[in-house]
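Notes, p. 3: input format for complexes.
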Amino acid sequence: MQFLSQTTPYSDETIESYLLRLSQDNGYFGFADMADILWDWLVTQDYELEGAFPNELQSVDVYKASQSSNFRVRALRLVAQLAGVEASELLNLCWLRSNTQFGAITAVSRGGLLVPRQLLRKSGIPVCTECLKQDAHIPYLWHLKAYKACHKHNQLLTRICGQCNAEIDYRASEAFLECECGAVIKPAAKANQADLKLANALATNVLASSAVAKLVGLLAWFSQWQSISYDDGEFSELFVRYFSNWPSGFESELNKTAELAKVKQLRPFNHTPFNDVFGSLLKDSKLACAGSQGYNTVQLAIIAFLTKLVAQNPKKKHPNLGDLLLSMLDAAVILGTSTEQVFRLYEESFLAAAQPPKKNTFLKPSDNVFYLRQVIELQQSFALNMPNNQQQFVPPW
Ligand SMILES: [Zn+2]
Ligand SMILES: [Zn+2]
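Output follows (397 residues plus zinc ion):
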């Protein structure tokens, strides 16, 4: 079997878009029609591939194949063979699962570009009508929730069908310029500056994937920290404004929180967990960059703030904000290291526990036992030899 018409993938195209074009170029009735035939053929080649190729475009991408992404990859290799293109050309169009995380959020990657999985649009893929008139394919950027305007045509992507008010989704309509209801998709309004700024940043940094990883990390952090969904109409504007005033705006936000804590104080600060005052500040900061390579932008700003806070609240008889209690998990964020390393610092008396664990019990990573002051002082004492990766305070032997 071989496809009669061979379709060349665009390098920025999505796998769904490519397969849809392949089915159209070869005169199939729709993607499902081609998928049925492919499914049968794949099983004759390799019985393990039974079910490895879905007949819905929505489920075709590799990261969506939960238990069987290796079979999906194998199936796509065979499809590439039929289509007369290199397997790598097709696989480069897919989002793959990654072991890397943005904090607690899993990442997916496409050609080395790493983004938090939640940044991918689920329902509805908006389109730029101008782009589609020039080149009929869907670029992967349109699948990113934070990409709301076309950076080439300065217009918003069309998200909603003017006829039936449903979200536009080429994977459902199986047509690029048509809604599922059959209506032709109309151009959207001119984009605002903030939407364009974000779109440009996502599009132009693609060559430097680390710059995009940093940007998408900040997007994930901002969305979580400010409790704003990417889909919020004002997301771009709020994001751009927040970071144009960085880090002074963030710092004054934290200062306000600290002042408020003094007013609302219930217990002495040397008995108050850090999280009671600052919430999930330290935990959330991990979202701002993938993996654990050194401090990210948000963490650097947090450490600068906490260093100042401790300096302004020197050790006194009466406990103050410098005496808040940190867990091993949070201390690890400040020290830029692992919880195992923090535990070793404790064992070797670099850090004292406010309350030593009771006999025959272990210190849990979430126990709030370390003084903020001590952790910050320790962080500062190692600041001079701060390499751009995880800190090793105690040699691992
Ligand atoms: Zn466009
Ligand atoms: Zn419609």
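The chain is about 40% helix and 5% strand.
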